[in-house]
Input
Amino acid sequence: AVNNLNKFDKKISQLRLKSTVETAIDLCQNHMVNPKYPGIVLALGGDMMSGTIHDELTETNDGTSIDHVLELFDQLVWAINALADKFGKVFVPTAYGNHSRMYQQYRNKEAAHLSFDWLLYNMLEKHYIAAKDDRVQFQIPVGFDTYYKVYNTSYLLTHGDRLGVRGGTGIVGMLGPIARGVQKVRSEYANLNKSIDMVIMGHYHQYISIKGAIVNGSLKGYDEYAMGNRFAFEIPKQALSAIIVVTEELMENNKMTPPVDFQMGKVKIGGDAVKVEEPKDDDNKKSANKNNG
Output
């Protein structure tokens, strides 16, 4: 159906999830200098299953949505355990998608309680609570977004179908509505006195990285819908990003980076966050004299 460009079934989905987890672990543990991590964030952004929102999906799905929830539960327990064993702590922010809704009609009322994604996330959380495994922590909102911080970087995880924008034509394609949607989301949260450094979403089944936003790819990959709408071909992929925390120890060990002469100020380590302290006038004079001398 897609000119032999892609194939997807239960077995392939399991293999792709396994490959994603193992590759992420390998990249972080074996291809980074001094790989020491306080934990890892596993963002689950929704559409964990095709669902039954279109008749053609109901006719071609390999099992029911309940079947898929039970299968995904086992697969994600394996994935989370594998990450916890390697990174120590796993934080799982979540957002539910549009394909997992129980009704074909798009709903705003009780959207979470009518979502198989949301059911799956709660089953996973209850599993780790019952197992008394405090390595794993979930954040499961009833609303459409999850807002969280990693050190001083603030994130908003949303599925991507509720950006408050539509359209996307011409050469720009989906970049136009995504960029407008990200700005609209930022403005909304600014009114709530919450700043957003990075918006993370999925929904579009294509990996895109723009300033202030990451649009994740998909494990499913190219399908008939994408081909029918002439979307660009993309292999199945998932995003992996890192937060680099600059500590005093790292700065002192780097001879090319003086530990004091940062224009923004001195970097201080306090609690679980990196805080920037504005330089005092005396510090500026000392730094200037040092550089001139």
